[in-house]
Amino acid sequence: MRRSRVRDDVTGWLFVAPVVVILGVFLLLPILMAMWVSLTSWNGQGSPFKSGVPFVGLDNYGRLFTRDDLARENFMISIRNNAYYVAIVVPLQTALALGLALIVNSRLLKGKSFFRSAFYFPSVTSSVAVSVVFLFIFSNSGALTQLLGFFGIQGPQWFSDARGVIHLLLGMDTPPAALAGAGPFGLSWWEWLSGPSVAMCAIIALVVWTTSGTFMLMFLAALQDIPVTLEEAAVLDGAGRWQRFRYVTLPMLRPTMFLVLTLGLIGTWQVFDQIYVMSQGAPAKTTLTPAFLSYRTAFRDFDYGAGTAISFVLFLIIVLLTLFQRRVMRERRG
Amino acid sequence: MRKLASVFTGYAILIFFALVFIYPFVIQIANSFKTEPDAAASPLSPIPHPGTLAGFERVFSGTDLPVWLGNSLLVTVVVTVGRVFLDSLAGYALSRLRFRGRSALFGAVIAVMAVPGVVLFIPKFLVLNQLGMYDSYLALILPVIVDAAGVFIMKQFFDSIPAGVEEAARIDGAGAFRTFWSVVLPMARPALITLTIISFQGTWNEFPHTLVAVQDPALFTLPRGLADLVSGSLGGGTQYPLKLGAALLATIPVAVIFVIFQRRFVRGANEGSDKG
């Protein structure tokens, strides 16, 4: 009996060994190594684990929040940019995904699977390849500029336009005196309140276009789970279309809505590929995001300690969002 | 009458959005066959005037695209085969075998799925560098040859197979691996196909991992080469027909698989989302 238990253990662990070893070596170990590197000012020369690599303690983290220098400015700008990006992408992609799912799911319409595939296709293509396409569409002589031209609109020069959208909406080029002064973390209130830049809007358009399809599928699956009898009962009770949506469909979609919103929140804090291909943080740092900044700080400025510290702060943001999501979903189920 | 009007509006909205979602690809295809002045003058037109293969010729003669293509193919095939096999092994063990530490391990797999890829860029580079693997095929392949989400999908699938299936094999005295390989795995075909497709698609499109794993242009995969093409030396000047043509070549394999296996893709997307 005892021997067979041991044998079961050995068999089990043999089956999972490749996964355990590879995840251990390329996921767990790197995180531990990075924790160490984030406490040093290693510059990429030699090994970061030899003596002689300067140990700086929590300085790399402190710099991001407390010291008045370029590192903090860049980091705060990247947080601002990403926050606006999240605030626009998440509601937009959720609304678009829900809208598309509702229409595709309509019983009156045919061609369901064609439209479903058409909306989903951008999600499965290479982020780099579609970034190239959108770079062309948003280029100065590109398709969008021409399309806007048909309607007599003079489009902006998307990727060289660093003006903030909120500033543009207010019609102000220079800050009013009240906002020009220093705000939190070294950026002025005026800078904090810029809104996403015009260039960032082009990236937002691309991302909403690529991700909506995936979330539409989740809404579709949930819509198909709503019992038809429930709808019929509402019709019998004389509920109009809007009332049916508001009091029957929407409450039934709540778990999916929550999932889509939180997956959106988690995903949008990780935007990287599009930034790398389309703008590299330009113009005037307005498309800099923490993910891209950490990459740039490490691999272009060879400041691995600071780059890693940025990664961990981003990690913390995302983990908190994930824990929040899992907790709420578990409560729902339980 | 009202019904007719709402059907009409419904289709109008669907077709409008179908255009929004598909027309960028039309633009991509059309402009990759255009001359450069034509692409600049009429980017919206779906018909090249005149049509030319010059962009593609320059892609093949003036860039390393053939090398990138070969690397992408190699990496994608090896990683996909590896993931399907190794993820199934682990998924099966977590679902069916009894061993100490199993539930803790499953908890760890779930936790690992929550680790965001973007924060691993520098850490992955550190470990590849430390192990002397940086800038090699091994660096492109090994770190991504298993994935926690795949393990999770396979475990969920094996959970759904009735337990009696293995009894006969066990009575015949087959070992755990034999039972797994010749009895359970053949039943898992649907899940294996789904996993193959999402692994292929994910690996073919993978970009940031290549950024921290290699720097030698001879080791670039398609997305990496393409990104380099756009932001690097050839980025000067517009050269859009060439860039769009290269992007098109990177899109085609996944597009073909998508068209053939649409339903699997849809299932994969929903399974991936169900992991909370």
Task: Give the key terms.
heterodimer, A: 334 residues, mainly alpha, MetI-like fold, 2 domains, 0% strand, globular, B: 276 residues, 73% helix
Detailed description of the structure:
The complex is a heterodimer of chains A (334) and B (276). Chain A is an all-alpha fold. Chain A has two domains: 1-35, no CATH class; 59-162 and 197-333, MetI-like (MetI-like fold). Chain A has 16 helices and no strands. Chain B is mainly α. Chain B has two domains: 2-52, no CATH class; 65-222 and 243-273, MetI-like fold (Orthogonal Bundle). Chain B contains 15 helices and no strands. Chain B has helices spanning 2-32, 36-41, 54-62, 65-96, 102-113, 121-130, 137-141, 148-159, 165-171, 176-187, 189-205, 208-213, 222-231, 240-260, 262-273. Chain B is globular and about 70 Å long. Chain B starts with a helix and ends with a helix. Classes of the chains: A mainly alpha (334), B mainly alpha (276).
List the helices and strands and how they pair.
The complex is a heterodimer of chains A (334) and B (276).
Chain A lengths: L1 H36 L21 H7 L4 H36 L6 H13 L2 H11 L5 H8 L14 H6 L6 H4 L8 H4 L5 H28 L2 H9 L4 H12 L1 H15 L4 H6 L11 H10 L4 H30 L1
Helix pairs in contact in A: 2-16, 3-4, 3-10, 3-13, 4-10, 5-10, 13-16, 15-16
Chain B lengths: L1 H31 L3 H6 L12 H9 L2 H32 L5 H12 L7 H10 L6 H5 L6 H12 L5 H7 L4 H12 L1 H17 L2 H6 L8 H10 L8 H21 L1 H12 L3
